[in-house]
Amino acid sequence: xxxxxxxxxxxxxxxxxxxxAIRAAQLGLNTALVERAELGGICLNWGCIPTKALLRSAEVxxxxxxxxxxxxxxxxxxxxxxxxxxxxxxxxxxxxAGVTHLLxxxxxTVIRGEAKLSAPDTVAVxxxxxxxxxxxxxxxxxATGARARQLPELETDGKLxxxxxxxxxxxxxxxxxxxVGSGAIGIEFASFYRTLGAEVTVVExxxxxxxxxxxxxxxxxxxxFKKQGMTLHTGATVAAMTLKKNAVEVTLxxxxxxxxxxTVDRVIMAVGITGNIEGLGLEDLxxxxxRGHIVTDEWCATSVEGxxxxxxxxxxxxxxxxxSHEGVLCVxxxxxxxxxxxxxxxxxxxCTYCTPQIAxxxxxxxxxxxxxxxxxxxxxxYVGNGKAIAMGDTEGLIKxxxxxxxxxxxxxxxxxxxxxxxxxxxxxxxxxETTEAELMHTIFPHPxxxxxxxxxxxxxxxxxxxx
Length: 467
Hints:
The structure is a single chain. By secondary structure, the chain is α/β, with parallel strands linked by helices. The protein contains 14 helices and 23 strands. A five-stranded mixed beta barrel has the order 1-2-3-4-5. A five-stranded parallel beta sheet has the order 7-14-8-9-10. Strands 19-20-23-22-21 form a five-stranded antiparallel beta sheet, with helices on both faces. Helix 1 links the parallel strand 1 and strand 2. Helix 1 packs parallel to helix 9 and helix 3 runs antiparallel to helix 4. The mean pLDDT is about 95.
């Protein structure tokens, strides 16, 4: 079989893969993209985007139930679960079509099928419509993403024990559910279902929820979630699950080593992800893999020359925007573009779209101190901000961490309304390597939530003006 020749072949059409393919085409590389399922990947079709649509519906429902606080009245406020799910799927479909259009516009050849490396410069494809194809390229990028991790004896069954996929398309909202894992995925589902009235229990094996976040932010989040009526068990594990006719009996081993039995309608497993490395031919080629993820250098290159890996399959942080950035970085390095800088994970923001929202970038206060920094810490609460008060949303905090010796912004940590939008200001500041001086002299518009970002910086140096 004669191989179709390309400059670059990308395997996987998620937020890393399709962005890499488009950027390669922009740089003049003849590019093919192989995708076995849906363009846009898990993020666009079954993750980031549709979950935000679900959460938006829940947010609107919450506001509608509290209209009286704003001088507005509405009767018989209710939700339709089927319509909420339908809207979420339509949003995903619209963006999927958009990705298809962008690839076509940039003249990227899209091949539907299952790909495997048969040599460092050759990709064998089992085509989705039958038959085989062979592609040759001097550069191959693996962007195959990841899937939900399964725990022995606690596997999802798609009916009573859900993965994220089933949790996104419920036929109805269960009266009660238990969520195993309190990372971003678990907490977003907890927030969605609790807002729509479900009794929600969250089980986390570590000593606090949202364990990658700053401890102070985690504590504030736990307080807010408990106030909403969630039950949180930290330092706890699931010892056993027994399936009933239409319920699950869960045995919890709590932090005091006592056991507690909880019966719920559904369980959502949100215990992390593992890279999609199977069936790619990595072992035969000698591509290094560590704990379920492909090992790469600062330019996303693997241990085999000409083969690269980006996104979730290349390890944490498992975020779509990190994957897209790696895709551009990798392709520009391949093309010989100048003035490139390796990815600094300290500049990668993380966002959790629960209520209240949570966002962060850089080192936590504890991590900064562990790394030997003497720190200055600033804080500003939502309750001191005019825009937050006008919005009727005064629950939250902006926290900044600086190197006391140099004024470098080491980290920023936020909880409250719209912090997933606000965090980008600190991301820009970190990328530009600004110090407290530039941030203090930046003019923030009034009245906005962003003023709290300024005040938090001022507070780190004893100069807060409004609290």
